[in-house]
Write a structure and sequence with these properties.
The structure is a single chain. This protein has one domain. It is built from six helices and no strands. α3 packs across α4, α4 runs antiparallel to α5 and α5 crosses α6.
Length: 157
């Protein structure tokens, strides 16, 4: 069974017919084909920009969760307590930005919605809440790669 991740064609609200299907199918690439295409000579700039922009969101989330939030243990109505609330909102925003991309990637890889949701929950929550920094760093590396490749594929369209 081959699962195709359609990252390059934006969704359209046009009626489905047989005329547009061949054009849509030709633009669909598997995840492996997208990684290969990223490193060809025409896709290196998009790959660099995609890895940079896609990878920064999980990296920011990781740094805030493990380097900033430990200083704001008490969430109160003081200035520093409110700053802690804002930092938690940034972490949740980073996960909300990353999770759909990771879900689509693992849905294409596994072919099962349940497994894709499990992979998203595992990676995002381990990266944010695991007390062992090595586990968090491994989850961060996977998230940076997946988000970067997804964004690079979007930029190449």
């Amino acid at each position: 069974m081959t699962t195709i991740l359609n990252l390059l064609t934006p969704p359209t609200n046009q009626p489905k017919g047989t005329a547009g299907n061949s054009a849509k199918k030709s633009k669909r690439l598997t995840t492996v084909q997208q990684v290969i295409q990223m490193f060809k000579s025409g896709g290196r700039i998009a790959a660099f920009l995609g890895l940079l922009t896609g990878g920064c969101i999980p990296a920011f989330t990781f740094c805030i969760a493990h380097r900033v939030l430990p200083f704001y243990r008490e969430l109160s109505s003081t200035f520093f307590g409110m700053l802690g609330v804002i930092m938690w909102a940034v972490v949740l925003g980073g996960q909300a930005c990353s999770a759909p991309k990771v879900y689509k990637w693992f849905l294409a890889a596994y072919g099962s919605k349940v497994e894709a949701v499990g992979a998203v929950m595992c990676l995002e929550l381990v990266m944010t809440f695991a007390p062992d920094i090595r586990l968090s760093a491994v989850a961060l590396a996977v998230l940076v790669f997946v988000n970067g490749v997804y964004c690079a594929g979007s930029l190449q369209a």
